[in-house]
Amino acid sequence: MEHGSFQDESQATFSLTDEDHTLANSLRYILNQDPRVTFCGYSIPHPSDARVNIRVQTTGDPARDVLKDSCQDLMLVCQHVRSTVDQAVMEFKSKQGVELMKIK
């Protein structure tokens, strides 16, 4: 859900349900790397409420578009981490198999 002014699309607050610090802090980090973002922060209104509010202010681009771009960037980062970990696990398992067979 988006909260904010319809007159100024460069700033908005987005409310994400069923999310917590894990996604919010990662998204905040990615947003703050974007040169179009002048301010980004998040809050959790209450610990028992599974909701995160993310505030985005930009240099002029629509905040909604900047948030979408940052979500895409975060997905790419997660995919890279996943493939790197998968590759390291495969290398570890293959190395362990060689050591167990006592092949030199």
UniProtKB/TrEMBL annotation:
- Residue span, DNA-directed RNA polymerase RBP11-like dimerisation domain: 12-83
The record's Pfam families line, in alphabetical order, gives:
RNA_pol_L_2
Q: Which UniProt keywords apply?
A: DNA-directed RNA polymerase, Nucleus, Transcription
Subcellular compartments: Nucleus
Q: Which InterPro entries match?
A: RBP11-like, RBP11-like_dimer, RNA_pol_Rpb11_13-16kDa_CS, RNAP_AC19, Rpo11-like
Record-linked Gene3D superfamilies: RNA polymerase, RBP11-like subunit
> Which top-rank group of organisms is this from?
Eukaryota
Regarding protein family, the annotation reads: Belongs to the archaeal Rpo11/eukaryotic RPB11/RPC19 RNA polymerase subunit family.
Q: What is this protein called?
A: DNA-directed RNA polymerase RBP11-like dimerisation domain-containing protein
